[in-house]
Specification:
single chain, about 625 residues, alpha+beta, Penicillin-binding protein 2a (Domain 2), Beta-lactamase, 2 domains, about 35% helix
Length: about 625
């Protein structure tokens, strides 16, 4: 007889196993269904939905009138397709139809065919379609000639004003542009990106089979903030006139580039700022491919040796130290030997004018006299170098002006306290060699010379939305008493020298300024470029004697003179002639100028004549 196989213990054990298993399953189910419920739901939403950002309306940019639109955002269509839904034969038919509608050339047709050959659920075929083209595509879809393509709305930044030269838009360099991702690039667009762009609207929506959002399922997570409009200090009419003048000078002088800025010396407002060659901001993609360097604004981003225009900084240093005054007589010689006979500098014409008044030496741009004044700023070369360098930095050279555009650079100013200057370094610095500056720095420094000694911050934005921007406080960097003397010396330059007077003066207005012609160092060759120079003029124009209204700075970059003699480098359009044209356009622009502060009072303190050095 077989023994019994059932056992009460075994039954209890089996029941316990079932109970434990059941409890474990229920616990695990509770873990997923209760404790991890939110995490699982979020993961499910992540797999079946998508987050997207819809850019807010980007703020428009206007000129100072608030009427002329310089930059705006419009709605355009982009053409998209689902190539994976098309057979090979149908793809060829779609390519043929779109080639006709989009008026494509052979290369563009090949690119279109390559995009449609990709076995992908979503590709972008074209952007920024004109409304007429969009209508033709819709007609093709309705007629069945097209399928598995669609139109999607997208914002497009546009620059509606034509520039002063071919293939350019107005104020392209100072405005910059906006890329396809909605980010401002260069100029005002980049500097004021956060203000102009606002914040995007954030949406969550279910995905379709092609991983595209289903519009009906969209839920707004963040409403977004529209961008704010900007009103600039630029006068659109003057800006256009300046660009046209720059184009004419660029063509005539066969220069690498020509630049100019028109500045209010009392507020720092920029009325016009341009360079040529310029570019069409509506076609930035083509420029980025072919010549991205075109985007760089020379006014704020190009540094160069300014030449004799820098002699006005030496004037300031000499007047402040009391070593010279305008009527001080200094002996001008053809060349000056320095550093114990190891180095020397010379006048451009290799001649000397003998004993000459300091103001005449500046008018006739005598290098030797400027060097003598610089060397006389201290008892030692180190002391004199420190004095001149301090004037440079006090007037903003070697630092940023704070202009509200992207890409400003500080220039190159060697500190004699860090790297000791020889006599030749001090002499060269006296007439603008061995230092690298930007045109906006020159304009700002000259503004301080004529406005009573205040270093203004140049700026381009007058209002953000309805809020006017208050002018930043200007630091006093010069004795106000110097201004009248400096104004007089600048006026003396253009009224004394016939070469300047005949092509700089404007009937009915007072003008003054200083020229600069500088050699250009070729770093690759380790030598000066042959007969290629940078030409600069910075000056003022005034409706009333001694009361400058505007500062105009021009630079003709890397131009070859048509007449090259010792002491004479003539071009079809000289820097001071270009100054006169731009200054006349500016001073006669209707409604541009308001009443000015009273004439700077006082004059420089007299100083004794200095002996021949």
């Amino acid at each position: 007889m077989l023994g019994r196989t059932d056992s009460r213990g075994r039954l209890v054990l089996l029941l316990a196993v079932f109970v434990v298993t059941a409890v474990a399953l229920v616990g695990r189910l509770a873990w997923w269904q209760v404790i991890r419920r939110d995490d699982l739901a979020a993961e499910a939403r992540r797999q079946t939905s998508m987050r997207s950002e819809v850019p807010s309306r980007r703020g428009a940019i206007y000129d100072r009138s608030g009427v002329v639109v310089l930059a705006a955002t419009i709605e355009r269509d982009r053409l998209v397709a689902a190539p994976d839904q098309l057979s090979a034969a149908r793809r060829r038919e779609v390519v043929a139809e779109l080639t006709t509608i989009l008026d494509l050339g052979e290369g563009a047709t090949a690119d279109l065919a390559a995009k449609l050959a990709a076995d992908r659920p979503y590709v972008v075929l074209a952007r920024g379609l004109d409304p007429q083209v969009s209508e033709r595509i819709r007609a093709g879809l309705a007629a069945g000639r097209l399928e598995h393509v669609s139109l999607e709305a997208e914002p497009v930044r546009t620059y509606p004003q034509r520039g002063g030269g071919p293939d350019s838009t107005l104020a392209a360099h100072l405005l910059g542009f906006v890329n396809r991702e909605g980010a401002g690039q260069y100029g005002v667009e980049q500097f004021y990106q956060a203000v102009l762009a606002g914040s995007p609207r954030v949406l969550y929506a279910q995905r379709d089979v092609n991983s595209r959002p289903v519009p009906e399922s969209a839920v707004v997570a963040e409403a977004g903030i529209p961008g704010t409009d900007l009103r600039l200090t630029i006068d659109a009419g003057l800006q256009l006139a300046v660009e046209q003048e720059l184009l004419a000078a660029w063509v005539a002088d066969r220069a690498v580039s020509v630049s100019a800025v028109v500045l209010d010396p009392y507020t720092g407002e920029i009325y016009a700022e341009a360079s040529y060659p310029s570019y069409d901001a509506n076609a930035y993609g083509t420029i980025a491919t072919n010549d991205p360097g075109r985007f760089i604004d020379p006014i704020v981003s190009h540094v160069y040796e300014p030449g004799s225009v820098f002699k006005m900084l030496t004037v300031v240093a000499g007047l402040e130290r009391g070593t010279v005054r305008p009527d001080t007589r200094i002996r001008d010689v053809p060349k000056l030997t320095l550093d114990g006979g190891r180095t020397q500098i010379a006048n451009a014409d290799r001649r000397g004018k003998g004993w000459i008044r300091f103001e005449d030496a500046i008018a006739y741009s005598r290098n030797v006299v400027a060097a003598k004044v610089a060397l006389g700023l201290g008892e030692t070369t180190a002391e004199a170098a420190g004095s001149l360098h301090e004037v440079w930095t006090r007037l903003g050279f070697g630092g940023l002006t704070g202009i509200d555009v992207a890409g400003e650079v500080a220039g190159l100013v060697r500190d004699p306290a860090v790297n000791e200057w020889r006599q030749i370094d001090l002499a060269n610095g006296a007439f603008g060699q061995g230092v690298a500056v930007t045109p906006i720095q020159l304009a700002t420094a000259f503004a301080a010379m004529v406005n009573g000694g205040r270093l203004v911050r140049p700026h381009l934005v007058q209002a953000i939305g309805a809020e006017e921007i208050s002018t930043a406080p200007a630091a006093e960097v010069l004795d106000p008493a110097l201004s009248s003397t400096l104004i007089g010396m600048m006026n003396h330059v253009v009224t004394t020298v016939p070469f300047y007077r005949d092509r700089t003066l404007i009937p009915g207005y007072e003008v003054g300024g200083k020229t600069g012609t500088a050699q250009i160092w070729d770093a690759e060759r380790g030598a000066w470029k042959n007969l290629v120079y940078n030409y600069t003029f910075v000056g003022y124009v005034a409706r009333e004697t001694g009361k400058p209204d505007l500062i105009v700075a021009v630079e003709i970059n890397e131009a070859r003179p048509t007449v090259a003699k010792i002491g004479l480098l003539e071009m079809p359009v000289m820097s001071f002639e270009l100054f006169r044209r731009i200054a006349h356009n500016a001073i006669t622009t209707p409604g541009l100028l308001a009443d000015r502060p009273s004439e700077p009072s006082g004059s420089a303190q007299p100083a004794p004549a200095i002996a021949d050095q």
